[in-house]
Amino acid sequence: MPVPTSMDDSFPSDGTFDSMFTLFIVIFVVAAIGAAVVTVMNWKKASDAGVNPFTMETEAMTTLIKSQALAPEKTLEQRLADLDALHAKGTISAAELATARAEVLKSL
């Protein structure tokens, strides 16, 4: 039984594998550098804004949850009742009430 004299005898290579492997390595390195640059830029932007980059997603979600952005929209009747309640308390005048009611009804 003949013994191969080198490892190249057992794997025929025309250079295609080597060039594909090199291309893969180049693409991987470029992607890793790009990801690192984007991460550093985002980190700096968050730090400059006074936000802790480790907790900014939680801070944003907490702020959103506490805001009225996710609250269900009030019905027409509720909005008009709120205006009437403000007028009854004396917070807004009769003219302001009329203007506000007209705006609410116009938004339909």
Describe the structure.
The protein has 108 residues and is mostly helical. Among the domains are: 17-52; 72-108. Helix content is 66%, strand content 0%. The chain has helices at 16-48, 56-66, 76-89, 94-106. The relative contact order is 0.05.
Question: Any chance you could write out the topology, listing elements then pairs?
Answer:
Elements: H1 16-48, H2 56-66, H3 76-89, H4 94-106
Helix pairs in contact: 3-4
Arithmetic mean pLDDT: 87
Which stretches are low in confidence, meaning pLDDT under 50 for 5 or more residues running? Answer: none
Quick one: biggest sheet? none
User: How far is it from the N-terminal to the C-terminal residue, by CA?
Assistant: 92 Å
The radius of gyration computed from the alpha-carbon positions, rounded to a whole number of angstroms, is 33 Å
The geometry reads as elongated
Count of β-strands: 0
- Strand residue percentage: under 5%
Total of helices: 4
Share in helix: 55-70%
**Element pattern in H and E:** HHHH
Structural class by secondary-structure content: mainly alpha
